[in-house]
């Protein structure tokens, strides 16, 4: 029982690392909705530079935002920084775990990962409610609610977050499929060389 629980915890750590890795990849590469023309590329670039690259408050380029938008950007930046720190910790743990326990947990990583993705798809069927729940968990006092004419809403409309989420699911599903194929081919190759 203790052994199974230990392997389950190791599986969870690896999955957290995997999801955070995909999140970080998308965070650094996916900055606007697909197929949309960026209305203010300079401002959007300055916003992303502030959110993921700068260590200090640098709102000089962001003076076009209202104080409420700036406050929310600061909250988002703090979430990104905490997420990055967690990603580093879980990735280091996962490397060690996979070095020693890859064969013992890979099946669980695949099965639980696909199950989590299916659960996320079910939650996303009502994306707006899921979006609101997520924001209420991470941003208190409704500091994330803006009118449709808000500059932040124009740069980051709801469909940006929907596309980000879809890409996260597609990438993680792809990883699980590749892991399954690797496991299957590895098992098939090992039976070819057994003496009966």
From TrEMBL:
Keyword Cell membrane among record annotations: no
Ribosomal protein is among the record's keywords: no
Organism: uncultured Sulfurovum sp
Keyword annotations: Membrane, Transmembrane, Transmembrane helix
TM stretches of this protein: 7-30, 84-102, 109-128, 164-182
Name listed for the protein in its UniProt record: Integral membrane protein
């Amino acid at each position: 029982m203790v052994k199974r629980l230990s392997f389950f915890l190791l599986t969870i750590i690896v999955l957290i690392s995997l999801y955070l890795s995909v999140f970080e990849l998308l965070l650094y590469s996916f900055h606007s909705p697909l197929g949309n023309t960026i209305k203010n590329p300079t401002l959007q670039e300055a916003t992303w530079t502030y959110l993921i690259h700068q260590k200090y408050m640098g709102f000089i380029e962001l003076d076009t935002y209202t104080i409420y938008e700036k406050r929310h950007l600061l909250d988002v930046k703090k979430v990104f920084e905490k997420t990055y720190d967690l990603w580093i910790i879980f990735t280091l743990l996962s490397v060690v775990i996979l070095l020693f326990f890859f064969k013992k947990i890979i099946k669980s990583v695949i099965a639980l990962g696909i199950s989590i993705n299916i659960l996320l798809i079910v939650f996303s069927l009502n994306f707006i409610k899921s979006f609101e729940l997520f924001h209420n968990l991470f941003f208190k006092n409704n500091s994330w609610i803006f009118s449709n004419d808000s500059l932040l809403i124009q740069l980051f409309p709801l469909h940006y977050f929907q596309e980000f989420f879809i890409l996260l699911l597609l990438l993680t599903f792809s990883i699980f499929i590749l892991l399954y194929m690797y496991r299957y081919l590895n098992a098939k190759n090992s039976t070819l060389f057994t003496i009966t």
